[in-house]
Inverse folding.
């Protein structure tokens, strides 16, 4: 067994906040005793507290362990059992594969050296155990819901009853606000007006500092929001949604359940409004309902869904027409909450003409634009390759220094060789290592360059051509064609007041995620009150060496 393979790292984990930190201490103590029996030297201990084994994401301890393995600082990973690393078959197999590639062996206290067969068996058992727990927990929660107790989070207007899990009582101060919301809504006020009024009156919101229209009205499909929540009428609905974990991000996302899967229980003691009031509110919601903007097959206008407020970043929406019949647009945050720091109102036709004229002006030669993108991306790849190469050379030299320093230290300890020469060599290595680490720190992280497939650039050129052709007819006819073409290339259009009284417009393209902030279209323009658009920044040829 060589020197590096005797260096071991311990990894420990427990799942929920209900468990004690003592669990980590117990696991580490067990692993230390195992390491002593196996003749291993513990160089690091990594742990994750209150982190599920169902995902690799959000586990800083595991990330640090894998980094130690990549850097060659450990040769063995010790765990109490394989399910401490992961309870997911795919993740456990991936961890084992990567550690094996790095020449790192996994050893479990109760199972010894880990091989592919053991990983497969333990991964399957761990995942089945986790899924079985989910079923048991949901069964318990369903029983709680059938008893009329809360099996989920706290709803506005209620608080938990101390010493009686799942039971709630009405909070009269919040209940009065709920009744006010229903009364104002039935009196004809919109959810936005109600939210603005509550914010203006400094009424504490359920979440955050301000009320939103969405807090008032919620979702018809999910039966949430104050106006849709049946609990306020004395009916508890549980299991409207379920949470699933996205395997690509590790985040838990909600999925709607079918109505027949819901558990509905009458809880008249928790009613805040009477059934007639709740029914009247539902009737008005239904009468005012219709297809949501995201449910419509086609955008109504060329720039629908693309406009953003330059003052606060919220979306912008129409706010009716003036006496001359021109459509106005304003910040939705101002409309819903009244908290935009610089609310501005613009005429839609002025914005559309300015944006389309500006885009059309920059798309005179789509082929030139595509060549610019190709050259810029090639230059970024070249610079990235240079940086990666320099960092790789430094890291290889650091690894060699580390190995030589270990040999020198070993010889000094054993008294082998000329002590003075070995001591001088050790100091030289320390000086060189320090200089190299400074160079590595100053070189920065290796840039993340996404390779563009030739077909992607070909499609980009085609999209530019389609947009150029569509914009030529957009102001007269063919609005839908132009809207589709704009959405292929533009991700957002930000509007703000210009210093000359016009409109400052910032257009960001979808290719920016791959090429960075200078990729087309990402030019800043100013549209004066008459709608004339003048480019303040445009495209320039990529500069070599930048």
């Amino acid at each position: 067994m060589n020197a590096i393979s005797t260096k071991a790292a311990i990894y420990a984990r427990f799942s929920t906040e209900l468990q004690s930190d003592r669990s980590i201490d117990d696991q580490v103590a067990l692993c230390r005793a195992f390491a002593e029996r196996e003749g291993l030297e513990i160089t690091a201990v990594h742990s994750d507290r209150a982190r599920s084994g169902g995902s690799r994401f959000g586990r800083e301890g595991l990330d640090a362990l894998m980094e130690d393995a990549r850097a060659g600082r450990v040769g063995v990973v010790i765990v109490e059992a394989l399910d401490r690393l992961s309870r997911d078959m795919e993740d456990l197999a991936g961890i084992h594969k990567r550690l094996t590639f790095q020449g790192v062996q996994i050893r479990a206290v109760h199972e010894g050296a880990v091989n592919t067969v053991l990983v497969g068996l333990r991964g399957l058992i761990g995942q089945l155990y986790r899924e079985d727990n989910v079923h048991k927990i949901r069964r318990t929660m369903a029983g709680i819901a059938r008893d009329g107790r809360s099996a989920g989070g706290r709803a506005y207007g209620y608080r938990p009853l101390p010493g009686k899990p799942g039971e709630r009582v009405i909070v009269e101060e919040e209940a009065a606000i709920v009744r006010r919301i229903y009364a104002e809504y039935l009196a004809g006020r919109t959810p936005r007006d109600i939210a603005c009024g509550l914010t203006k009156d400094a009424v504490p919101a359920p979440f955050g500092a301000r009320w939103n229209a969405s807090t008032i009205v919620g979702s018809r499909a999910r039966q949430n929001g104050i106006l849709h929540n049946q609990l306020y009428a004395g009916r508890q609905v549980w299991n409207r949604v379920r949470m699933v974990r996205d395997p690509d991000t590790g985040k838990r996302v909600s999925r709607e359940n079918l109505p027949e899967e819901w558990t509905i229980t009458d809880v008249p003691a928790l009613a805040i409004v009477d059934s007639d009031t709740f029914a009247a509110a539902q009737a008005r919601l239904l009468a005012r309902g219709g297809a949501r903007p995201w449910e419509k097959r086609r955008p109504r206008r060329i720039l629908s869904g693309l406009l953003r407020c330059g003052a606060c970043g919220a979306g912008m929406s129409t706010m009716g027409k003036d006496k001359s019949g021109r459509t106005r647009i304003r910040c939705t945050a101002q409309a819903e909450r009244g908290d935009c720091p610089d609310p501005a109102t613009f005429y839609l036709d002025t914005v559309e003409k300015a944006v389309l004229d500006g885009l059309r002006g920059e798309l005179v030669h789509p082929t030139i634009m595509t060549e610019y993108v190709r050259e810029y991306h090639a230059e970024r790849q070249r610079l990235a390759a240079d940086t990666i190469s320099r960092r790789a050379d430094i890291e290889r030299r650091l690894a060699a220094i580390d190995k030589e320093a270990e040999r020198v230290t070993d010889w000094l300890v054993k008294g082998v060789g000329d002590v003075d020469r070995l001591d001088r060599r050790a100091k030289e290595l320390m000086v060189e290592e320090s200089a190299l680490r400074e160079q590595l720190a100053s070189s920065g992280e290796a840039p993340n360059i996404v390779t563009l497939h030739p077909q992607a650039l070909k499609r980009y050129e085609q999209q530019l051509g389609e947009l150029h052709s569509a914009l030529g007819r957009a102001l007269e006819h063919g609005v839908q064609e132009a809207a589709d073409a704009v959405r292929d290339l533009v991700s957002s259009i930000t509007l703000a007041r210009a210093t000359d009284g016009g409109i400052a417009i910032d257009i960001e393209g979808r290719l920016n995620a791959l090429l960075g902030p200078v990729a087309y279209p990402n030019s800043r323009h100013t549209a004066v009150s008459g709608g004339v658009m003048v480019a303040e920044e445009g495209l320039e040829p990529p500069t070599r060496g930048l």
